[in-house]
Amino acid sequence: LIARSTRRLSLTSAGATYIEQCRDILDRIAEAEGDLAGERKTLRGRIRASVPMTFGLLHLTPLILEFSQAHPEIHVDLDFNDRRVNLIEEGMDLSIRITRRLEPGDVARRIGSGRLLVAAAPDYLARHGRPRQPADLAHHECLGYTAAGSQRWSFTVDGQTEHVPVRSRISANNGEVLAEAAAQGMGIACQPDFILARFLDAGRLETLLEEFPVPELGIYAMLPGNRQIPHRVRVLLDFLVEGLA
What we know:
This protein has helices at residues 13-37, 53-70, 87-90, 122-128, 175-183, 193-201, 231-244, and strands spanning 2-4, 9-11, 45-51, 74-80, 94-99, 107-114, 116-120, 142-145, 152-157, 160-165, 168-172, 188-192, 206-208, 217-223. It is an alpha/beta fold. A 5-stranded mixed beta sheet has the order 4-3-5-14-6, covered by helices on one side. It contains 7 helices and 14 strands. It is 35% helix and 31% strand.
């Protein structure tokens, strides 16, 4: 069930299958007992969720705290990070992820959407000029988001998606850091609206290339593939969908 090395323990494929089947059995038992105990009226149990750092702090935390206040017998365990987690191996009930596309085999529920915006500080634009089309970014200092993998930014040009390579002197796996770097005139950022909003409102950043929209971001609740979804998790998802609307 477990592969052992000098540094870590990890589940084998048989171990992952076994623990998933055991969790499914336990969830079904909890669901059945919940029916008898009136869980439909009083939710109880544990919810382990992985949420992205900035979006989680700004938008999910208030909703989850409100949900927790309404259901005091629910124990919520939140893991804040921007990486893609293995729900089965890490024993998570769900994770919230923001992405343009899902991977084959992903089991997910769309709970919201967001937009990517391209922005730079007035000081940067005064020194380097304003890009007029996506290809102009090749001559600019861009700020790379390493969690996205490929350092190419996508735009809609004449109805077609165009991928533009960018160069980055500063890269990070956190969008808040890149937005602050852009606000200090260190380059051009391409980040979600929920990160850039306060910088734009304060006049520290200006949006660029508005006529070439960036593909929409989906906000998804990622779920374990074969597991029965506990009623308490479904209720939380419904609550998040309504709150994010």
